[in-house]
């Protein structure tokens, strides 16, 4: 199912839409926690703190939007309150593991430097994805005349991507070659995630 068509189906059904918002909130929260885990014990930049704080805020904002559908829905991140919970929980974790494996081979880094490299390249890949996902979601929301909006997230994610590129330029002159490899890893994992969500949405619509 084409992504825009999938999102149009999701926003039409309140309980499924709430799960979608909760799933995005879960992933933003997981991203924020991964950024924090990648911090150096002492050499933590302001921009890294800013990213973690903003990803946490996105998680909170998306969670809060669920109240516009029904305040009683999706109060936790329990599997029953997420779409495709297994694929959702594996997506970022698998990207992190596979990217670390590649970056270790490419740069031969120590443990602390590998964490920082993973922060740069994994966050970059996620921001590239967010720059594609949220505008399509906003379009589906606008077409459905929904009270829910993600325009503020779109603006911040665009800023994040620019900041990641600046940091990657400082990290390595040929970062783009390595980032393209990580983007390929992310693309495969994203397709698995979307396929799992598509199957579940189809099942829920016919339930």
From TrEMBL:
It comes from the Bacteria. SUPFAM superfamilies: Ferritin-like. InterPro entries: Ferritin-like_SF. This is Rubrerythrin. It comes from Chryseobacterium sediminis.
């Amino acid at each position: 199912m084409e992504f825009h068509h999938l999102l149009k189906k999701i926003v039409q059904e309140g309980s499924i839409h709430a799960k979608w918002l909760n799933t995005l909130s879960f992933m933003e929260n997981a991203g924020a926690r991964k950024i924090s885990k990648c911090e150096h014990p002492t050499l933590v930049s302001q921009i890294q703190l800013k990213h973690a704080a903003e990803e946490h805020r996105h998680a909170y904002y998306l969670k809060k939007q669920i109240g516009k559908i029904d305040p009683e829905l999706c109060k936790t991140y329990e599997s029953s309150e997420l779409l495709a919970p297994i694929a959702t929980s594996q997506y970022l974790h698998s990207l992190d593991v596979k990217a670390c494996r590649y970056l270790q081979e490419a740069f031969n880094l120590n443990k602390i430097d590998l964490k920082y490299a993973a922060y740069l390249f994994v966050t970059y890949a996620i921001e590239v994805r967010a720059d594609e996902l949220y505008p399509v979601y906003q379009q589906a929301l606008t077409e459905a005349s929904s009270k829910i909006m993600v325009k503020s997230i779109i603006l911040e994610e665009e800023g994040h991507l620019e900041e990641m590129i600046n940091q990657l330029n400082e990290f390595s002159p040929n970062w783009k070659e390595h980032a393209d490899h990580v983007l390929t890893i992310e693309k495969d994992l994203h397709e698995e995630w979307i396929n799992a969500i598509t199957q579940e949405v189809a099942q829920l619509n016919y339930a």
